Amino acid sequence: MQQRQLRRFAGSCRFVYNQALALPKKRYERGEKRLGYAGLCKALTAWKAHPHRAWLNETPSQALQQSLKNLERAYKNFFEKRADFPSPKKKGRSDRFRYPQGVKLDQANSRIFLPKLGWLRYRNSREVLGTVKNVTVSLNAGKWFVSIQTERHVAEPVHPASSMVGIDRGIIRFATLSDGTFVAPLNGFKRHQDRLRKAQQSMSRKQKFSHNGKKARARVQKIHVRIANARRDFLHKASTQISQNHAIVCLEDLPVRNMSQSAAGTTEKPGRTVRAKSGLNKSILDQGWFEFRRQLDYKLAWNGGWLVAVPPQYTSRTCPCCGHVSADNRKTQARFACVECGFADNADLVGAINILSRGMHMLRDEGQDTADASAGWDTTARIACEVSGAVMPPAAGTRRSDLGAAQCRPLAP
Length: 413
Prior knowledge:
By secondary structure, the protein is of the alpha+beta class. 42% of the residues lie in helices and 15% in strands.
């Protein structure tokens, strides 16, 4: 019974959102101005008073009003060029609604009280700290989830570590750190790709909205959820470990959306490497680079650390010893070999070292004291020599332009 009510509430909020989205178009055709949130609330009262829409009164009024607030936020994001124009919501996609107040929490018995639903038991993933501000109820692959937003005051954090690290993100290696360590990729989508393909083929053969079609769709959703959960768990573990062990993390400011665009081109100018680019796009999106950066950002802030986003240009083509920039330095994807001084090492490690150097220069130009975080002002060449085991590391404070090829030559076998 409660699950049926949850679906009805989500459907009512979706209906109100779509009605409010279609209303400005009608008003524009009549030459009227677009209604704001207050005007939409008056329209909502009229919709609830309509005899054919009396079922809207069964849903908590505050949940319906929150749908209008979501629409206003979507309009604001569009006008400020942070998102596309709002589109109508569809049944079965992001079914959710929000309670701004009236919620009671009983953590001792793992239950929560929601208006017009009563007490519901739930599995508590963590202790809820602070004052409850709002509660969002969402449906995902047939399971209902409750997200509780709280407010509490915390002391200014001080990071326990004093190290600084650069990270190069890739496909063969998910994350390569400038200290020589790396994180292997998960490739969750690649693992389940065949299974997902068979499930999608089976769903395509079913009649839409039939009983078997719904079961086939549920199987596809279950695989997608499993892939997403595995990726999320992997990213959380990796970002937590890095944010706890390093006070400052330097990361490339990669345009992931542009990097994963299709190479199909247009009808007049079709692309030539569509198939290869499609496989590369799948691999890039399977890694979750943007989510990894997002998690690092807020986890470092929680721990009292910093995330430094550096420009990504030529990080994989610059020699960390002599500073020579050339595409010939990286003739293969995995190996870096400088044509000027002969320095050679893993290409991802070289990129991580260059990223760390740029981050250190950016912090120094901004007037930040990085002496504790970087254990002294080490240049890129010094870091490269120490990581790769080279002889004669330059002294602290030596500029890259003052370094010669002999100062960073690899050890003899």
